[in-house]
Amino acid sequence: MSEMSAFWQGWIIVLSVGNLLACLWLVWWATNKRTAAATGDVMPHTWDGTLQEYNNPLPRWWLWLFYGTIIFGAIYYTLYPGLWDGVLGWTSADKSFTKGDVVSQYEREMQKAEDTYGPIYAKYRSVAVADLAKDAEANGMGKRLFLTYCMQCHGSDAKGSTGFPNLSDSDWTWGGTPEQIQATIAVGRTAAMPPNAHLGEEAIDQVANYVMSLGGRGDPAKAEAGKAVFTSGGCIACHGPDAKGNPMLGAPNLTDNIWLYGASEGVIKKTITGGRNGLMPAHQGLLGEDKIHLLTAYVYSLSNK
Fold first, then answer.
1. Hey, where are the domains in the chain?
2. Are 197 and 223 in contact (CB under 8 A)?
3. In 10 A of CB 97, how many CB atoms?
4. pLDDT tens digits, one per residue of 109-158
5. Helix, strand or coil for residue 204?
6. Mapping DSSP to helix (H, G, I), strand (E, B) and coil, where does residue 53 land?
7. Using CA atoms, how far apart are residues 99 and 95, in angstroms rounded to an integer?
8. Of the CATH numbers 3.40.50.12780, 2.70.50.60, 1.10.760.10, 3.40.50.2000, which one belongs to the domain with range 123-188+281-303?
């Protein structure tokens, strides 16, 4: 244990024990069996100038419940990590952070789950994704995995939201083949649209209108000028000379009507000016190959009915 960790552990012990002792003293003090009604001992505050409250001790049952919680706290500190490692040797940390051969509860539960459910996922390991996408049972398992790990960003219907792509259509920024989808889930993706504020407001306005014109919108005169800026300003390096994007770079197709951050002129200008950054986290270490295989099949099935 480092000196800094030992320092804070000492403070935690002092504060924890101090709180227990303070609570114990408070309860002991409150058990004074004085009879305020007989002595005339009243609280200093009044209501409406007439109502007063006697300084009577707390009810016995309440005090014993308080004693019980203090006793429970002392037992808990003895059995589980708090002031020290605890006599049960329980830990939620990785084994490398514990003494001896103690196996953490997390490791035991994960191993138990792997022994129980691992063979169920493994039986689909050798089935091709395209075939697995047609299997109702496998798709049900893939959907449950999706609702557990993916819906937070892509939604329960997989239609996404601003900044998170729709997985139920045929538009794929990084490619929609089984191999590409599996790679996206396993190793994640990092997309970056660099800021282009250096172009100036007029040029950005023109480029935005050119991009809008690719979908049949925008000012034609500005769009014509914007096409030259699109070519000379470096946009074609990622999006291509035809603006259809590049799955290898995660550059989206600008010629359709599918927009990850919004299609209004203001949003497009904001994207060009300030850039965008998107992150799809890697799930290889979290899920493993068999679960990713099932999840890939489910996502693939959404756009390949």
1. 3-90, 123-188+281-303, 191-280
2. no
3. 11
4. 888 888 999 999 999 999 999 999 999 999 999 999 999 999 999 999 99
5. helix
6. strand
7. 8
8. 1.10.760.10
